[in-house]
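Go through this chain for my students:
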Amino acid sequence: VCLVAGAQSAPLVARFDPANGVLPTPNNLLFAGSVDGTLNIPVADPSDPASATVQALNALDGFSTTGPMIATFSSALDPASLVAGVTVRLFEVELENPVLNPATDSPFAVTRVVQELNGEIDFTVNLLATDPAQSTIEILPLRPLKPKTGYMVALTDGILGQASAAPAFPDLTYIFARYERGPLINPDGSSRFANLSDSQAQALEPIRRLVVAQEHAAASAGLRKAHIVLSWSFMTESTDDALRAIRAGLTALPFTLAPTGLDTASVQGAGLADIYTGTLQLPYYLDAPTLIPTVVLTTRWRGANEAEITRYNPQPVAPQTLSIPVLASMPNAASGQSQPASGWPVVLFQHGITRNRTDLLALADSLAAAGLAAVAIDLPLHGITDSDNPFYNATMERTFNLDLINNETGAPGPDGLIDPSGTHFLNLASLLTARDNLRQGVADLLQLAASLEQAGFDTNQVGFVGHSFGAIVGVPLLAVDDGLIGPASLVMPGGGIAKLLESSASFGPQIQASLAATGLIPGTSAYESYFRAAQQVLDAGDAINYAQAAADKHPTHLVEIIGPPPDQTIPNSVPGAPLSGTEPLLQTMELNSAGTTQNDSNGLHIAVRFLSGAHSSLLDPGPDAEVTIEMQQQIVGFLASAGTLLPIDNTSIVFQP
């Protein structure tokens, strides 16, 4: 009784009132009522466009692997008392999963602690910047959390108030929820406590079972229950299940190439490579705009019977098979190379957002000089839009020749011109569509890799080069690949896509303007909530969640522009978002920084940071010709050596660690 009285008068209380929607997040209580293992966050009016973000979250089978954990207190906090691993504890736990174990009478109850995460190594904690009251804490992962995994947060009374320096106290509701001496209700459903109504006790009883299990688990890890002022648990979403299902079922599909009669001299190159065009058939897991052009703005992957794609239902169903255009380059006599009996070693090239497959041609001569052929396809909703381009394919471009916006102003409505390549690829108004455009890009590259032999390439010598978003898509490709692809060069990739885009000097202003038009203003709580939700939805297509597996499987060469100025398109790091940008990605991949030539017969895992150049420097010598030459020579040497040699010739333009 005295504890309850203390909670009512304490100067600092960790807020917990589920009946009124006051919950620390993410929280497994938001699965309540789910029938398919997806989240079931309440939506007042599903027809209200403002509810679209929550409805997207409700298509997921768990919470973000990269997003923050948030809890609110009754008054301002002393930031010095927020110590990761001391006053704020984070544990990996085992949970009772009601989908995997329908017989459980304690869904999502913590059954044991697997391990405790390390403060300032695995996670950090600070005050939430958008809360002017300074009463909200934000716990940020410094490494991606494991997918499909339970986690538990415990906050302690070492957290202090800013004004009073008084220790935090549990909320009254939490005190009832941690009650260990039996249920809150009698056998007839009535409350056992005078200051808890029957309906309150009945609603709180299932939560009590969860909280008691959490505190028992925390105690087993050495945290005394008496010091806990708030605890909660959550399960992370699946990330790679769908792509692994696609990889497991891959078979070759028709892939043909034919010479164009042109070589790279026709595109202002050195003429060392002949240019080929062709087609590749692939499963398209999204809806193509056959009758309704705007379907590309809202389509997403679905399973059998239109079910959501989750860990429990990972196989997407392809509504159609598409034939898409392919561009290839092959060394010719001018290259001084001869085709081996086993066929040309080949490099898969993936362009960046708003670009198209012809970007390959800027790299083709360098590859040809080393005896490497190359093949490029477009990212989904990308392609050539200029009908005068000799490589334009009027019936197969995956822009689908859409005309949904005014190309000059960006305003909705047709203007008689094909929308620019990639205009609709990252549609942040439909987050599930954006996620699945990313995953479709990975699936397309998997299909290309599985079909290479039909075009006569040496499938034992396959490399990968991705630029910008092509490199971002390349990381999941490498992570789920099993033996189709060897070494990879990732040129200016990044992770944590939501805040990466918002912080990009190239993309950020447009994104902020479009969100402002919907009432989401930078610096506000609603604005940041949107980006947290966006990242949660995008996680399954985000490179950061695949980074470690990709590097574990493949020799890896990563290129970053640190300048000054640094990369203006893919930021190297993002303040307040420790898993967004290029640096967090290369750190998660555990790449070594190098400024001189490297050799390793077991395969290299290297990041090279350039002191000059720009985001376009891989393909465009304009910003700094020396950078373009050095980048291309590094890539060629790395791929031609199967990832065992990284030549760094011009050491003056790269960072020396």
User: Anything to note?
Assistant: The radius of gyration is 27 Å. The longest strand covers residues 273-284. The mean pLDDT is 96.
